[in-house]
Design a protein that fits this description.
The protein contains 16 helices and 17 strands. The chain has about 525 residues and is of the alpha+beta class. Helix 6 packs antiparallel against helix 7.
């Protein structure tokens, strides 16, 4: 007994693993009992089975390592249930045991291997095809060995748990680092596709997955790669989206996750991975970036492991998708705000009826043109235009027809403008034309040409929605501002207005003369 205890102490002191502890113990137990086979089993609660982990066979009876049988059919369960740890006449005690009869077991001994909370880990057993006398000291040795094995298993499980927790903590830190970097990239990005490409590159660099491919989604709902051409990746992304149309549509709502996984029965996932020279038993997922209007972009993830079953990894990928989707919405909101500001600015500086620049815009632009001409010793032509007979059109046909006439008149003026010219609605039935003189031309001749061009270009038939109007043309007054004059837009416009009234009086006089002559 003293020698056995000494051997046992040595085994315990030198063991660095469960196997290193159990193998010498089985040798010791076999020597102490003389049984044909001694072995350690583990109870597997997940399927209620018993598995032989380590065995030592020296006689006619042989039990192989790795053998796994239902727990309900084992002699161990019977022995523990009946509290019968030693049985030297198995055929008469458990004659209904098919396993015992098949193996020819005569003597059987078992002691439980239990946790501190009495939970069953397994059994330490011995069996023989012949009757063997087992001393009480041998049973005590088995119990001691079982306690030491339980302690070793608990210690290894604790060490494994510590290592797993350390690994999980390391992975969590890595995930937090990834999310932090993705957030930083999204906060500094000014274009969505640039951010998607940068985030995909960072995910690829993490080596958590086999391949990470950035994609953008066209308006027709199909994918195209960013950067490298990868038709296989776009084909796979398209197939994932086509297989999950309702899921994709739901992503536009903030409470929906942004990952698409392939249905389990889709053979093309394995085919795709084979094309990519990846193991067929891996997984794929599509990380989709959305705004509140549509799916904007995507990142295809190819992994060697099951992505769908890892809550932490799924949360990580959803966090990446959410960060990019927040960026997409931020950029969309910014674009909307810019468009709204542009619209407000346009409305503040343009006439709502004709779309032409209004008086405010006209004065600002004229001030700029006058200052520019002052610097280069240049000149500016300004024509004031008044629609003769417009009141009669309103009185005869109504204001809606009058408004339509003003809109068509504005179109005619715009069509008469050349590069560098500007036309504006000054107010009511008054318009202004601004143009630069030609190089080396006679200003008086140019004023006459501008006046005739504006009058002739707006004279004629106006086909309106409810009527046709023959219009004889407006009164036009043109002045030329030269460097050295007062660079004041209001002053220049007032002079052009005076010139227009002079033209109006001349037109009336000419009309009166023609009428008198008739």
């Amino acid at each position: 007994m003293e020698t056995a205890l000494s051997q046992l102490a040595h085994s315990v002191a030198s063991a660095v693993s469960l196997e290193g502890l159990v193998r010498p113990m089985l040798d010791l137990i076999q020597q102490a009992t003389g049984l044909d086979s001694v072995y350690l089993t583990m109870y597997r609660p997940e399927d209620d089975s018993q598995e032989i982990i380590y065995a030592r066979n020296t006689g006619a009876l042989t039990l192989k390592e790795g053998l796994r049988v239902p727990w309900q059919d084992t002699l161990c369960r019977r022995a523990l249930t009946e509290n019968r740890l030693l049985t030297q006449d198995v055929p008469n005690t458990w004659g209904d045991s098919l396993a015992a009869r098949r193996l020819g077991i005569q003597t059987y001994v078992t002691v439980p291997v239990r946790r501190l909370d009495d939970g069953l880990l397994g059994t330490l057993c011995g069996a023989s095809s012949r009757s063997v006398e087992i001393a009480d000291t041998s049973l005590a040795t088995l119990r001691l060995c079982a306690d030491l094995i339980a302690h070793q298993i608990t210690r290894e499980e604790h060490a494994h748990s510590v290592r797993r927790q350390a690994l999980e903590a390391e992975q969590q830190i890595q995930r937090m680092g990834l999310i932090s970097e993705v957030s930083r990239l999204c906060l500094s990005a000014s274009r969505l596709h640039d951010a998607v490409a940068a985030v995909a590159a960072r995910l690829e660099h993490s080596h958590l997955w086999e391949r990470v491919i950035p994609l953008y989604l066209r308006d027709d709902g199909h994918a195209r790669t960013l950067g490298e051409k990868d038709p296989e990746a776009t084909w796979m992304a398209d197939a994932l989206m086509e297989a999950n149309p309702e899921h994709l549509e739901g992503m536009l709502h903030s409470d929906h996750e942004h990952l698409i996984f392939p249905p389990e029965d889709m053979q093309w996932v394995r085919e795709q991975r084979r094309r990519e020279a990846l193991p067929e038993d891996g997984d794929a997922a599509l990380l989709v970036v959305t705004s509140d209007e549509k799916a904007e972009a995507a990142i295809l993830i190819l992994a060697a492991h099951d992505l769908n079953r890892s809550p932490d990894e799924r949360q990580l990928l959803n966090s990446v998708a959410n960060a990019l989707s927040l960026l997409a919405n931020r950029l969309l909101d910014h674009a909307r705000l810019e468009a709204a500001n542009l619209e407000l600015k346009h409305n503040a500086l343009h006439d709502t009826l004709t779309g032409l620049p209004n008086r405010r815009y006209l004065i600002q632009e004229l001030e700029r043109l006058l200052a520019q001409a002052q610097r280069v010793d240049g000149a500016v032509h300004v024509a004031f235009i008044d629609l003769d007979g417009f009141k009669r059109i309103n009185d005869t046909h109504g204001h809606e027809v009058g408004d339509e006439f003003l809109r068509q008149f504005a179109v005619q003026l715009r069509n008469l403008s050349r590069m560098g010219d500007m036309v504006a609605r000054y107010g009511g039935d008054e318009f202004v034309f601004v143009g630069k003189p030609g190089a080396g031309g006679d200003p008086a001749h140019e004023r006459s040409v501008i006046s005739e061009r504006l009058r002739a270009g707006t004279r004629g038939t106006y086909e309106l929605e409810s009527t046709t109007i023959e219009y004889n043309g407006p009164s036009v007054g043109v002045v030329t501002w030269r460097a050295g004059d007062v660079a004041d837009a209001d002053v220049v416009l007032a002079r052009a207005d005076e010139a227009m009234y002079a033209d109006k009086q001349a037109r009336r006089s000419a009309q009166h003369t023609r009428h008198t002559g008739d």
